[in-house]
Amino acid sequence: MLSGARLRAGGIPMSRISSRIRSRGCVLPCSITRLLAARIGVSLVVIWGLLASGSSSFGDSGWDTELVGEYTTNTAYGGISVDSAIAYAAAGGQTYGQLDLIDVSNPSTPTLLLKWTGGTGFVSDVVTTSGMAFLAAGSGGLWVLNVSDPLSPTLIGSYDTAGDAQRLCVSGNQVCLADMSGGLQIIDVGNPVSPSLLGSYNTPGLAYDVCTSGSTAFLADGDSGLLILDISDPSSPTFVSGYPTTSTARAVTVGGQVVCLATSNYLEVFDVFDPTSPTLMYRFEYGNAVDIDFSADVVLVANAMLGLVELISVSETLTAFLGTYFASAQVHSVTVDQNDLVYAGTGQGLIILRYPAPPPAPSGLCASKGEFPDKVRLTWNDSFSATEYQVYRATSLLEPKAAVTGWIGATSFDDTS
Question: Region 220-241: what's the mean pLDDT?
Answer without folding.
Answer: 98
